[in-house]
Structure formats: structure tokens, C-alpha cells
Amino acid sequence: MSKATRYFEPSQTQVFIFMGTSGCGKSFFGKLISQELKVPFIEGDELHSESNINKMKSKIPLEDSDRYPWLQAIIDKVTKLANEKNSSCILVSCSALKISYRNVLRKNLIEQNIIVWFIYLKVDIQILKERMQKREGHFMEADMLESQFKDLEEPNNEENTVTVEANNNADLVKKIIVENMSMQ
């Protein structure tokens, strides 16, 4: 993980955003680590509008105009939780596929005095397809992966980011994530 380029007050909330394409493990690791560390977890998928969910169910890729209100809903939820619970750490799942989406999250949360970290869960597309074909009850289907990879701008050399190869076994991936989080 890159080091922060400014100094932060110990009382500041840190938000760790698990990002990547559908099926990479954002929700799985977010929930798992949230329970282990006893910190709040925000499931980004739950903040999608009904029209976004209907589009994805209909196999229509989301556009920027669909995603920006969703990103704002995530920002609002993180800010509210940080202020209400005085949480020092919050975990969030959010695809954040494009740098412009990550910049919106960064800018708006930093303005609320919240430190933002991205944990990019990188997984081979073939493994993702296999994972997604096995899961049930999710609005995002495996044949939508191509559109996500088309939009994906990997966070190379972005401040406060780490890339975790999430093809590995879950225990190892979790260990790597927690170790990186504890260094902050």
C-alpha cells in the first residue's frame, strides 16, 4: 500500500474500499474482515437504485450517469456512519472501476475529514466467471463481466491503494488484506 502523503489526526475515520469487478470478493472479504475486526461494513450493492438493479438484471451495463448517484449514496452512508458512530474504521464494497469514480469517492470523503484507502481485489476473468456461475440470488450475472473489464481502470500507482491478487485461497487473501490495513 502506498503511504499517505499528508499527516492525519488519530481521530480521523479511515475507510477501506474493497474494489474490483463483480465476483472478486468485495462483499465476502468486507463482511469477513468487518466481523473479525468488529468494524462497520457497508454493502455498496445495497445502495444501488432500483433502476440500476433492473438494468443489471436485464444485462444492460451501467453508464457513468447511473453510477454517480450510486457513488453519492455510498459517500452519504460513509459520512453518516462516521459522524453517528464516531467510527475510526469503516469497510465498504464498491466496484470503483474507473479512476474518475475513485476520485469522486476520495474528494468527497476527504472533504469530510475521512481518510480513503482502496483495496483492489484482482482476479483472473476465468476464475471470476466460475465464481459468478456458482453464486445465487445476485443481480449481476457472469455474462456481464466483459462490460466491467471494459470499464476497469486498474489503480496503478494511485495514492493510498493496494492490489491484492485474490485468485489465491481466501485465508491467504484475508491475511494479506488485514496486514495491509494494519500498516495504516
UniProtKB/TrEMBL annotation:
GO terms for biological process: carbohydrate metabolic process. It comes from the Eukaryota. The keyword Lyase does not apply. It catalyses: D-gluconate + ATP = 6-phospho-D-gluconate + ADP + H(+). Its EC number is 2.7.1.12. SUPFAM superfamilies: P-loop containing nucleoside triphosphate hydrolases. This is Gluconokinase. It comes from Dentiscutata erythropus.
